[in-house]
Amino acid sequence: MRILITGGAGFIGSALANALVADQHEVLVLDDLSAGDPSRLGPGVLFHRGSITDRPKLWTLLQGVDCVYHLAARVVVAESILYPREYNDVNVSGTVALLEAMRDVGIPRLVFASSGALYGNQEHQPIAEMARPDPLSPYAVSKLAAEHYIQTIGALWGTKTIVLRIFNAYGPGQPILPSNSSVIPLFIKQALGGGSLVIFGAGDQTRDFVYVSDVVRALVSALHIDPPNRCILNIGSGTEITINALAREILTQTGSSSNTIYSPVRGGGVSRLHADLTLARRMLGYEPQVTLQEGLRRILQEDPRFT
Ligand SMILES: NC(=O)c1ccc[n+]([C@@H]2O[C@H](COP(=O)([O-])OP(=O)(O)OC[C@H]3O[C@@H](n4cnc5c(N)ncnc54)[C@H](O)[C@@H]3O)[C@@H](O)[C@H]2O)c1
Predict the structure, then answer these.
(1) What is the pTM of this model?
(2) Which residues form the pocket of ligand 1, taking CB atoms under 6 Å from any ligand atom?
(3) Is 195 in the same domain as 53?
């Protein structure tokens, strides 16, 4: 198949691009490099620098494409609180621009990387897809709005759409962002550097950390299913861990004698995130394979920043 990945030079997108090339697909990447790095892309991936808002470029790249993976987005929760309009411009208006171009060219399938962040604080855990979203940051709002556009417009124009709500992805090469979302590489860097691990809040908030190769397998599976209307699937590890326990595990695995210090809680944070994977198992045959302990071991062995 001929596949276009927006945001394909990013952390998840580049891993997806390389996996799809290994599966013999023809893979095009569109990325404006605001956060991406094309050196992550292996041979065989056709890289194009540009924005999802560049209509002529999109039109050209979309010719003959069987499926679009839409991953291009601004992704830093804390930054979205400072610059919500930028997040709206890229994550929402950029998505609508992509949808229009897809309609004009006649692209039959779209897979969208949405986020577990849009659930916000939920009483019932693990969180199933039918839970009412409670976005707590402009980033989360933008992912929810993009989902609505994708599903509404997809249904109107006959595009097959699959929305994957990815929880906290991690793995080798994950950039260290000024955000809780990259807490794993940040803690590893702090532990190896002998500095304190800075925990926002009491550290009893939980996250569902999912290894990047598991996310990629879910994305690849979405290429082959016949989705029902409103196909929304959680992608996580199916387990939750507190940030305190994560810090302890990283200190153990790195053999670090660093301490943990506590800083006031930041806006936009969610208290518990734990994905219910029932639907993803049923629809995609998805089964996470890498435990957090194993994923951390792999980062420490494979990520050149930490070896
Ligand atoms: N990493 C996670 O834990 C996680 C969790 C849930 C959802 N997601 C979603 O998955 C997707 C990929 O996330 P990631 O962690 O790889 O982030 P990333 O920042 O590494 O990747 C996003 C890519 O989009 C590109 N981009 C940004 N604006 C663009 C534009 N206007 N036109 C073209 N490209 C543009 C960036 O340069 C970057 O390469 C995002 O949509 C994100 O919201 C990620």
Answers:
(1) 0.97
(2) 6-7, 9-13, 30-36, 51-53, 71-75, 90, 94, 113, 115, 166, 168-169, 181
(3) no
